[in-house]
Design a protein that fits this description.
The protein has 212 residues and is an alpha+beta fold. 44% of the residues lie in helices and 16% in strands. The chain folds into 2 domains: 11-78, no CATH class; 83-209, Diaminopimelate Epimerase, Chain A, domain 1. A 6-stranded mixed beta sheet has the order 1-2-3-4-6-5. β1 (97-99) and β2 form a beta hairpin. It is globular. It starts with 10 loop residues before the first helix and ends with a helix.
Length: 212
């Protein structure tokens, strides 16, 4: 089977629907339910992104009925931090840049900053949302240097109808959903920042017209 649906909230919701299509939701165990529930809440920002539909909520409810412990999952994802992750967050927020004329904010993290704070995979999860949480900001990004791969990894988030999926596809070799996408840059950090700033005027009207 090939199954693609860019309107879906998450891959895990798609997995649930695939299992349902096969008529085997009765075989979902508590561990399976927990895994799918985890994927759904992380991809939907705990059900706050526009990609969350009534179907998404019904799937989540069924997964909870099948044994997903929503309280424990939320606690382990959002309320458990290591000292190194907290310090790295401090570095990220110190690097935050705000471009109010474009309703945009972005964060940079270099490889050296990651190394200095004992970076572990997953430590930067959710950092991009701090930029998006600023009043008046429609578009937020985080640029994370990965010298092993020679790229800058990019996460993009937006509010309202501003489509980061299209922007990521056009400029950063990526894609995703309207309000959440990923991409990469083969340029260095400063050049990647300059590229972002150079393309923003093309999106100024779309950003200014976005109602939040």
């Amino acid at each position: 089977y090939m199954y693609s649906d860019t309107s879906m909230s998450s891959t895990c919701e798609m997995i649930y629907h695939f299992i349902d299509m096969m008529g085997h939701t009765d075989l979902i165990t508590a561990d399976m339910a927990s895994s799918m529930y985890t994927g759904i809440i992380t991809d939907t920002g705990n059900f706050k992104y526009r990609s969350t539909t009534s179907a998404t909520l019904r799937v989540a409810a069924h997964l909870k009925d099948k044994g997903a412990d929503s309280e424990a999952i939320n606690r382990n994802i959002y309320d458990v931090n290591t000292p190194s992750r907290m310090k790295l967050l401090g570095v990220a927020l110190n690097n935050l840049q705000i471009l109010p004329e474009f309703k945009t904010a972005y964060i940079t993290l270099t490889q050296q900053e990651l190394n200095d704070n004992n970076f572990k995979k997953g430590d930067t999860e959710g950092f991009v949302n701090y930029g998006l949480s600023l009043k008046g900001i429609v578009f937020a990004l985080i640029f994370i240097e990965n010298k092993d791969d020679g790229i800058i990894k990019i996460s993009l988030r937006s509010k309202g109808d501003f489509d980061v999926n299209l922007l990521a596809r056009e400029h950063f070799h990526g894609g995703g959903h309207k309000n959440a996408a990923g991409g990469r840059s083969d340029l260095d950090m400063k050049a990647t920042e300059r590229k972002l700033i150079s393309i923003l005027p093309s999106y100024e009207k779309a950003l200014s017209d976005t109602i939040i």
